[in-house]
Amino acid sequence: MIECRNLSVAFHGKTILDRISLTVRDGAFLCLLGQSGCGKSTLLRTFAGLLKATSGEVLVDGKAVDGPEPACSVVFQDYSLFPWMTTGKNLMLALAASYPQKTKAEIRNLAESYLEMVGLGGVFNQYPAALSGGMRQRAAIARAIAVPSRILLMDEPFGALDPVNRAMLQDLVRELHRDSRGARTVVFVTHDVDEALYLGTEIAVLGSSPGRVIALEENPVSRQLPREKLFKDESVISLQRKIMEIYRSDMNEKLNLRESFHSGNGI
Amino acid sequence: MKILLVIEFIGLTVAAVWKHDWFAAAGGILIPAAALVRTLFVWDKDRRTAIVDVTAVLEGFLLAWQLVTSNRPVLDPVYFPAPDTVLRQFFSELKDMAHGMLSSLYLLGTAYLLSLATAIPGGLLIGSSPRLRNAAEPFSKVLSVIPPIVYIPYAIRLLPSFSTASIFVIWSGAFWPVFANTVAGVVNIPETMLDSARMLHLKRGTFIFRVLLPGAMPSILTGASLSLVFSFLLLTAAELIGATEGLGWYVKDRADFGDYARVIVGIIFIGLVITAISAGFKRIEKRILRYKEVTE
Predict the structure, then answer these.
(1) Domains detected in chain A
(2) Is A11 near chain B, with CB under 8 Å?
């Protein structure tokens, strides 16, 4: 479970996140939706312990986050894998750090099985540069779920993929959300409303400058319907409309703000 | 170009046979013959053309050299010996030069490895801490611009032997490019990649050797190849000033005796040695950075 209370983050005096309070229940799939620059990635990095809160706090499973949080694993849009190691070695590095008591052969077997799980049976000895963008993200996801942490943080992981790969990886993540040990907790950053509707059991919409939660919606049907039926479902269509409306008014607000700057009425 | 090659080939051969000069004949016949045989095994048309062109230029140069120095020499034969004289000397001097090479390589290798062994760990340390970086910057800025050659007289006076003095001088020149590039390499590792590493909770040693060092490696290698060039420069400079053996000394010593055929031989030999070492370095570099090649 992730709880953040009155969380603010500022860089060089500029407020990026403004008093955010948000709870991610165990097993929830929360999509953080917002325009670029709204601070959704900053929020994710603060959850991971990669950024320090200026005020307020983040609790993971009841403990305050201080430094890179062991209960979380992260998938970024780029550079998740180390290019100088083969794909298999990338997984082995993470696994060896998580399971110091296991032998090298056990680690290797584990790495191979996780790669197979994401559909990358044959690429153990290939360098990331030799893989397509979609395959690289599959490997990054394999590494993130191979370690024992039960919270998966994903920062626009499919932002750079073509539509077909994107859809395939969305299916994969939806599948991986639940495993034999129950449901993982996932926080997924995106600016794509349809992606959020398809993946998120909960959707938080972040407003921009400074970032704050402007809407928090439940999306209970997302796990009950396949893709082609989901977007014909009445509740999903109305949710989609509602989120788009929130999005639009946030954007208008931002544009109006700019205009008032120009006319000299601001500040 | 092929026609030119044939003309040159004939020219050199005729000149050689006319003078009963079998060294020149070997040069005139063997070089193009080797090039032609080589083209049989190269399928890429551009590369084949390149081999022919390079051989033609080389042959042309040798022919011109032969023409201006032998029979009725245009240039003073003391300063400009004929190519066959140089070639003959080259083979007879091989043993002496190999000896000199060992002495030079000992100095070069020790100093160069010493500079890598100090600059890379130092660069990793300073590169990973902004505070250390800020503290070190003014010092490295001033120290790195001092040409290491100016240390030579002082080092020779101060240190117990010529070899320790020249090792110090080469080290002080080879250190900065590696150091500066290691720092830059660490600083330029994408922040996301470091974040990704932080989330894996690696041990300190694992983080340094499997993330920081390889992450900075492309930049380190750029610095290391620059340092290698500096090392050659400083090595030969040091040897010209204070050595009693080595390749730089060999050239200077022969020049002192007015033996310019051997001076040219020494220069050519130094060129070959440095080319071989640089080629070896490139191979190692390519091997280390092989992960960058996209094989599809």
Answers:
(1) 2-71+149-263 (3.40.50.300)
(2) no
